[in-house]
Amino acid sequence: MENRATIRNAEAWIDNGGEPIRAHGGWMLQQDGYYYWFGEDRTDGRKVSCYRSSDLCHWESRGAVLTLASKVGSVYYRTSLELFPSDKEDNSFGQGSVIERPKVLHNERTGKYVMWMHWENGRNYNDARCAVATCDTIDGEYVYHGSFNPIGHMSRDCTVFQDTDGSAYFISAARDNADLLVYRLSDDYLSIEEHVKTLWPGQYREAPAVIKRNGIYFLVTSACTGWLPNQGAYAYSDSLTGRWSQLMPFGDATTYDTQPAFIVPLQSRGEMTYLYVGDRWDPSNYHHSTYVFLPLSFPSDNELKLEWADRITIDLSNGIIEPQSEPSGLHRIKSCGAERYLALVIEKDGAAEVTGNVLSYASEEQKWIVEPAGEKGYVRIRGKAGGRCLTVNLCSDGEQLRDEQAVLARSDVPCCSEWSLEDASDGESGVLIRNRTTGKVLSAGFGEGQDRKHAQVHVTEASKHDPRKGRDPQRFEILNVY
Ligand code: GAL
């Protein structure tokens, strides 16, 4: 039977009941013709939600499988059962303890579904614990068994992996995210048995996800930049606990504005395909975060590749995943120093301001068109919203600087709207954005005592940056909008 469905990436997805799908940092399990999708739910005391679908496109909510009101019961000596710290009734993360990246495995031996997840106290990320819950059915009410530090280690971003021999592993970021630790689980999957491997010590990896393909293990992971996207990396090995390759980049500089959640193997007609599921976190509002489903490809047995597609058509009966895309032609311009995105804000009186704002995918103000400016090498940087160009603040006769610091956005195109994008000679990432007329470069930073919501954007003399002072305020990344 044909079962074709088209997924539109990074749009707001709703379930069959018309409610937003809340399943971030999630996981999927296949059973009886359905894919069950578990993930974070930060609304009304809910912690982990579950949906199911037979085509990966239309999702039926199965409700919250873990909530603040879930039954609790310890299976370990001195495991903390606290889900709702009494000193904090409500907070910006949602109510009570924070639960992130829930993953569920089915244990053949006990018949139980075992959920592993990341637990925090709801005030900060200092406790860094893992937590466990179980259920007799895949989408029933899970019983919460508490949180703990595995063998005393910190444990933040996490995943699980069930090997072909039935053994299972919990993998999580330890030592303040510096190391990724691999633990073998006990036969019932309820406890940590042994720390079997430390991956890439000191490299600060997050958001791990593991698959095994043709006997080779692949692990994808992100760098550690909170809700901001970064260049994803992967590695491979022929043994989970043996020697792994170095980390190699996959996707683009922002992993197409995603962070890995999990990879789901799709089996049809004996062929395996692998679907990458990423979270597009919105740092300006967690609840505006979206999802991205993209097929992974494998150019060779130990190479993994991810390409962007606006839409994918999945046909589970034939194992076909057809990607479709049109390039947006738009860019975001990120200040490497301030970690803010250039925004062209048009005031009510028609005046335009250029500031550095917190990343927001919905913001049209943060989208720019970078177009050639006649002569080779120069570009104009035009705001998508308002159509005005980045311009230095020169007097109309073009001779005298009126305010040498300010950057304007003008709708006419004076000569001082031409810029060059210069790669750093020191191998640092990002470009200098240099004005052709004045030779000055863009810079973004925060003034004394200024709130950090908006960075100020200026033009200044290019100066050699002293990395001891932090990140370079004159470096910018020109990123593609997907
Ligand atoms: C990310 C992490 C997310 C969440 C977030 C909070 O780095 O991958 O799962 O913990 O930080 O800032």
Describe the protein's topology:
Blueprint: E1 4-8, E2 24-31, E3 34-40, E4 46-53, E5 60-67, E6 98-106, E7 113-120, E8 129-135, E9 143-148, E10 158-162, E11 168-174, E12 179-185, E13 192-199, E14 206-213, E15 216-222, E16 232-237, E17 248-250, E18 259-268, E19 271-280, E20 290-297, E21 305-306, E22 311-315, E23 320-324, E24 331-335, E25 341-346, E26 352-357, E27 368-372, E28 378-383, E29 389-392, E30 407-410, E31 419-423, E32 431-435, E33 441-445, E34 455-460, E35 476-480
Antiparallel strand pairs: 1-22, 2-3, 3-4, 4-5, 6-7, 7-8, 8-9, 10-11, 11-12, 12-13, 14-15, 15-16, 16-17, 18-19, 19-20, 20-21, 22-23, 24-35, 25-26, 26-34, 27-28, 28-31, 29-30, 31-32, 33-34
This protein binds beta-D-galactopyranose (GAL).
Notable characteristics:
Tachylectin-2, Chain A; single chain; 2 domains; mainly beta; binds beta-D-galactopyranose; four-stranded antiparallel beta sheet; 482 residues; Trefoil (Acidic Fibroblast Growth Factor, subunit A)
User: Over the alpha carbons, how many angstroms does the gyration radius reach?
Assistant: 24 Å
Number of domains: 2
Derived from helix and strand composition plus strand pairing, the structural class reads: mainly beta
Helix share, percent: under 10%
Strand order of the largest sheet: 2-3-4-5
CATH architecture of the largest domain: 5 Propeller
- The CATH superfamily of the largest domain is known as Glycosyl hydrolase domain, family 43
Q: Biggest sheet: strands, sense, closure?
A: 4 strands, antiparallel
User: What is the helix tally?
Assistant: 0
Can you tell me the CATH class of the largest domain? Mainly Beta
User: What is the 3D form?
Assistant: globular
Give the low-confidence spans.
398-403
Bound molecules: beta-D-galactopyranose
Strand percentage, roughly? over 45%
Kindly state the mean pLDDT as a whole number?
92
Span between N and C termini?
A: 33 Å
